[in-house]
Amino acid sequence: MSNFRHKKIVTKSGVLKTPFFMPDATRALVKFLNNDDVKKSGIVPMVVNTYHLFLQPGMETIKKAGGVHKFMNYHKPLLSDSGGYQVFSLIHKNPNMGKITDNEVIFRSPTSGEKHIITPEKSIQIQFDLGVDMIVCFDDPPPNNYSKEKISKAVERTIRWAKRCLIEYNKQIKKRKLDDKTRPFIFSVVQGGEYVDLRKRCIDGLIEVSNEVGRDWDGYGFGARHVDSEGKFMEKILRATASFIPEKSLRFALGVGNPEDIVRCYQMGWDMFDCVIPTREGRHGRLFIRNKQSKFPISNFQFPNKSKNLNLKSKKSFYETVSIRNNKFKNDFKPVDKNCDCELCKNHTRAYLNHLFRIGDPLGMRLAAIHNLKFYAKLMKELQEM
Question: What's the rounded mean pLDDT across residues 274-302?
Fold first, then answer.
């Protein structure tokens, strides 16, 4: 199996080339940015959040708008996560907020206190109502500090719920008279925490579900966090999980967003990434800047044999992160990155951006987020061309 995978996938809203990165448009927007800001960066697909849109504005509003593409006036590919991570995190942090059973999840809205019930079937129905291009199964994402026994139970529940999701998916395809050109892609989610054997068990179970229901998964996602309880990147687990996933299926590294982690995961065979990091860091005044070399620095990593593993530890970092709030930028009249052609770098100086953050003007957050998205777009393009 080649670790360098280049695929073109055709969704109902456009063609995507792997690997690709999706910023989080959680509530049908990327904070402080408009759709043109995102598109001009070179980023195409985005992720919306089923849980948040279900609560606000609510599905009746989304359906009246004609789906989330029309609601947010964005007609490029969108992926919806299942909402499982948010619901389970809510309950794990505060058991008074809900209850998890083998059949469903009962929870209270953290804003209104209203009681809601989500089942695997309902999650799929909501995502079809959103009208997105890619949907994700409702799964059981356990905290990383759970015991192996508890994580094993989450794996078995994830497999059972995946079957219910896939059955409901087929029903919705038939009900809505969709075909292979108009249906959304469906992703199952692989749980198993830090245990290779549980990740393998989950994938084997998901493949069995696919065979039983009679429909292949379009892709598999890496469930729960990709760092351990000490915050260390779980390279062994991510590498093993990728190797267990069928070669023809897309591999979605959910939540992987640090640039170096994306590079690592790409080399392992992961195709898709999403995270709040570029825009969130930008809003906090932290910007990603390439190193001083003229070409995008990832090209300086050596891949003499594509079957060999990338060892980032032996290479100088290909980027740096600067905190533009730092006083040293107060009188720095250079662009943030002279090699970047984003709106910020073409038109403004580090001193001006420092000023915007010091006075708390939202323009600073917008410009910084635009720059970081441009950085990610260039990184993905370089990986696509390797």
Answer: 78
Whether residue 17 contacts residue 6, with contact meaning beta carbons closer than 8 Å, is answered with yes
Are 248 and 363 in a shared domain? no
8-state DSSP, 24 = B
Is residue 322 a part of any domain in this protein?
A: yes
Please report, for the domain that includes residue 76, its CATH number.
3.20.20.105
3-8's contacts with Cβ under 8 Å and 24+ in sequence apart are 3/267, 3/268, 3/269, 3/306, 3/307, 3/309, 4/266, 4/267, 4/303, 4/306, 4/386, 5/269, 5/271, 6/384, 7/250, 7/271
Q: Report yes or no on 363 lying in a domain.
A: yes
337 is known as an active-site residue:
no
Q: Over the stretch 61-91, which tens digit does the pLDDT of each residue have?
A: 999 999 999 999 999 999 999 888 788 888 8
- Catalytic status, residue 228: no
Q: Is the dihedral of CA 174, 180, 186, 187 positive or negative?
A: positive
- How far, in Å, are 65, 143, 250 from residue 222 at the CA level? 32, 14, 11
Calpha distance 266→18 (Å, rounded)? 10
Give the tens place of pLDDT for each residue, 100-127: 899 999 999 888 899 999 999 999 999 9
Catalytic residue, chosen from 37, 81, 133, 139, is 81
Task: State the Cα–Cα distance between residues 74 and 159, nearest whole angstrom.
Answer: 33
Of 129, 261, 274, 337, catalytic: 274
**Closest C-alpha among 13, 72, 25, 30 to residue 50:** 25
Looking at 275, 299, 331, the residue that finishes a domain is: 275
Residues 217 and 125 in one domain: yes
As given in the structure block, the two tokens for residue 220 are 């598999």
